[in-house]
Every structure is written in structure tokens, then in C-alpha cells.
Amino acid sequence: MTQTKADTPAHPTPEQTLAADMLAMGHKARSVARALALASAKTRTEAISGMATALRRRAAGVLAANAVDLEAAKAKGMANAMMDRLALDTKRLDGVIGALESIAAIPDPVGVETARWTPENGLDIARVRTPIGVLAIIYESRPNVTADAAALAVRAGNAVILRGGSECLRSNLAIHAALVEGLEAAGLSPDTVQIVTTRDRAAVGHILTGLDGSIDLLIPRGGRSLVERVKAEARVAVLGHLEGVNHVYVHASADPDMARAVVLNAKMRRVSVCGAAETLLIDRAVADSLLPAIADDLTAAGCALRGDPAACALVPQATPAEEADWRTEYLQAILAVRVVDGLDAAIDHVARYGSGHTEAIVATDEAALERFLAEVDAGIVVANASTQYADGGEFGFGGEIGISTDRLHARGPVGAEQLTSFKYVIRGKGQTRA
């Protein structure tokens, strides 16, 4: 029988092709997740070490790809803070490689027994860490996240699907090629770490569906709009990384030199990171004597100040702050400044405007320090140190996927341990329940 034109199957549309490709990624990730979970800790270590070795060997190609991404981003008028996040140089790439080596060196969390006890029924009950399964990570701008996320996922025994920002696709693909080389050298499937290769934003929508039940946990890392979209539309569990509206509170008892050093570093060490301070709160009792010096330090470093009336009266170079300034993650050299009437007022301000990321106090009064640490609700609370320590590498995690501002499952820096779940293992001697 002759086939008519009407009977001839139509070519799939681009939308249908993308849907099929994304679904295939999910199925491949699910198919390799069990093998990865059952692989030895030694194999996972070898894979991550191999990633670092391959990335060092491919460094020139990665930097070349990043240079093209930067040129394209500049041509589109990308903001300086986002350009800084996108940029790689030899030093930063060495840092990425070093993070992989650190992740390879940390203890493997899979199979670790975190508790064990015997209740009155005589059962031997243990709680043991297990991989979550398949992760999907959606992130913007930072190509180092490609390496960090992949290595941490593998360290925790999880397969992972990565979807980076379109602005750094070339960089991400160059890094991913090195990651796959490391996996294969250790005998693991290249499907263990997959990356979305299209700039089509519809790919994110497919990931949010869960890819036919393949994804167990979705992690967004980016601006408020991305995180809010993911939380609103995702059909799978989400571990949120929201913006860092972080505060440094200078208490009346603060050592002046320490306060100046901590505030300057918290804001200006690197303004584009989520751990950068965005608001300075200073106790009225020391504002007259200390705020002008702190302001001069910041201004000399290139920071613009936006203050409440009391701050503006003490700092001529400050411009009046608006209500929105207390809620803004600037990610640039701008700092909001408010003079507060003591510890209670500082804690109230943080509770109202903070994003639950990182909050710091500078004080010598032990009672004030302990109250701040106990009462402030954030993933990270810091006494007498810079907020820029909000980093998984600084915590000894080797690296991080992000700083979770959620209150469930994981909070603060998300390293390998935070990418595991657990199961209860029960050993009996024939017990039956009445």
C-alpha cells in the first residue's frame, strides 16, 4: 500500500525535540544514580580528583571560552557585579581546581552512621546517611558552580543535572568536558553529571516538572526572580538559596579597630558575593565617635553610603536612604547605614529586613554576643568576624552549592553532607510486636 502524504509522520517541532531531550536527561540520571550510590567512596574520590586533574589540563581552553562569554556579556550591557561573577582568570580557576581537590579530600558522607541506640524492645536501630538520588541545579552567572556542584553531588553519591545561565554557557561546557573526563577515568558513567546545552529558557520549565519523576531535589542558585519562580512552579522538592541581605551590627561595646576592619571587609572584600554585607547597624552610643571613621574607610575603598537621618548627620558623604534600601541586596559598592538604639533595636531591624542568610555582630560584651547569636534567625550568625566567611570552603566543606536560606532539610552552606538524606537500619533477634 502506498503511503500518502497525510500518513507521513511530521518532523518534531523544536519544542517537542527539547521536551524529548530533557526527558532523556532525566531518565539517564535516574538510571545511573543507583550505581553511583553503590560505588565505593574510593571510586567517588578518584572521580573528583580526576575532575581536578582534567580541569587543570584544560585550563587554557576554559579561560578562552570564558573570555568569549565575557565579551558577549559586555556587549549586552551586563552589570559590573554580574560580570565579576562570570569572570574567570588563572587565579580564580586555580581556586576552582583547589576546591575540587578539597572536596575529594573530605570524608565521604555516604553510609556514615550518625546515631545508634537500643530501645526497650531490644532492636538495634541506626540512622545512616544515604544519597538523595538525582539533583537538578539551576544557577546563574558563576561558572565555578558547575565544578563545585558536580563534585559535591558526586561526593554525596548523587547524579546531577546542571542548568547554568546562558551568559556563561561556553565556560560551563568547557568545564563540564573536564568533569566528564574525570568521571570516565574513574569508571563512572558520564551521565552522572549532565549539563543542559541549550540557551532555550524553556529547558528550565521542563526541569521544574521533575522530568517524569526523575528529579528528587531541585536547587536554584541565583536572583530573587529565579528562586521565586522555581519555588512557585516546581513539582519536586526545592532547596532554596535566596538573596543575602546581610547586616553587620556594631554594638556599643565593640572594639573600634575590630569594628572598622570587620565592616570594611564584610562589605568591600568582594561586593558581588552573597555573603557581602549590605547594611551596617551601629549603636547610637558609639555612632558619634566611630561611624565617621568607618565611613571614611568605606568611602576611601570606593563604597557609596545611604544613611538614615542620624547617619547622614554624622557622615556628610552619605545620601538619604529610602525604605527600599533596607531590603536591597546591592551586590555592588553601596552600603545602607542605620543608627540604632541598642541590641533590641538591631535584632528587630534584622528580623524585619534580613533574608535569613548571614548576620554579624561586633562586640566585647559577652552577654550581648550570646543574645545576638541566640535570637537572630539566619542560616549563619557571626560574632566578631566578617560576613564574607559565609562560604562552604571556609567552613571546611571543600565547596558549596549555595547558602540555603530555608529552614528545612539544610540551612547555611550546602556541602556534601547536606546533599544526603538518611535511612534507619534496624537489626533484630526475631522480635515480633504484640
Fold topology:
Layout: H1 14-38, H2 41-57, H3 59-75, H4 80-86, H5 90-105, E1 113-117, E2 124-131, E3 134-139, H6 144-155, E4 159-163, H7 169-185, E5 193-195, H8 202-208, E6 217-221, H9 224-233, E7 237-238, E8 246-250, H10 256-268, E9 277-283, H11 284-300, E10 304-307, H12 309-314, E11 319-320, E12 334-340, H13 343-353, E13 358-362, H14 366-375, E14 380-383, E15 403-404, E16 412-413, E17 420-427
Parallel strand pairs: 3-4, 3-6, 4-5, 6-7, 8-9, 8-13, 9-12, 10-11, 10-12, 13-14
Antiparallel strand pairs: 1-2, 2-17, 15-16
Question: In brief, what are we looking at here?
Answer:
The chain has 434 residues and is of the alpha/beta class.
Write a structural description.
By secondary structure, this protein is an alpha/beta fold. It folds into two domains: 18-241 and 410-426, 3-Layer(aba) Sandwich (Aldehyde Dehydrogenase, Chain A, domain 1); 246-394, Aldehyde Dehydrogenase, Chain A, domain 2 (3-Layer(aba) Sandwich), CATH 3.40.309.10. Helices cover 43% and strands 18% of the residues. The chain has 14 helices and 17 strands. It has helices at 14-38, 41-57, 59-75, 80-86, 90-105, 144-155, 169-185, 202-208, 224-233, 256-268, 284-300, 309-314, 343-353, 366-375, and strands spanning 113-117, 124-131, 134-139, 159-163, 193-195, 217-221, 237-238, 246-250, 277-283, 304-307, 319-320, 334-340, 358-362, 380-383, 403-404, 412-413, 420-427. Strand 3 (134-139), helix 6 (144-155) and strand 4 form a beta-alpha-beta unit. Helix 5 runs parallel beside helix 6. It is globular and about 65 Å long.
